[in-house]
Design a protein that fits this description.
Radius of gyration: 19 Å
Number of helices: 6
Number of strands: 2
Structural class: mainly alpha
Shape: elongated
């Protein structure tokens, strides 16, 4: 098992997939990080040198990932709602925000646009 930022990964897992499993790290940013440390795009975690893994962990610890990134997104949505913008109202009502069709096929958008607020299971 390989440990990156306190998360254990199997040695056979691709480095790209391991990096993308962190919230806030997408395909482009993971490719840039791998290029910075000269890691092949199809390399597996077991084949990466321990020194490189330590440098990778140090690099990731300086970035805004996981709970911090989620909090930033939630704060941005809350700011939009407090200002009363169109996007903020759409978020509050659980409707599509980016101009999707609402005459039909709204069920998926309602499911995806729900935010956890208040108690344990209260959703809007």
């Amino acid at each position: 098992m390989v440990n990156i930022l306190g998360v254990n990964f199997h040695e056979l897992k691709l480095v790209r997939k391991a990096l993308e499993s962190f919230y806030g790290l997408g395909p482009q940013l993971s490719a840039r990080i791998m290029a910075k440390y000269t890691i092949h795009p199809r390399a597996r975690l077991g084949g990466v040198a321990p020194k490189t893994l330590t440098a990778l962990t140090a690099e990731l610890s300086t970035m805004t990932l996981e709970n911090d990134a989620r909090r930033i997104v939630q704060d941005n949505i809350k700011r939009l709602r407090d200002m009363g913008t169109y996007r903020g109202r759409r978020h509050a009502m659980g409707l599509p925000v980016r101009g999707q069709r609402t005459r039909t096929q709204i069920g998926t958008a309602r499911k995806l646009n729900q935010l956890e607020r208040g108690g344990t299971n209260s959703k809007i």
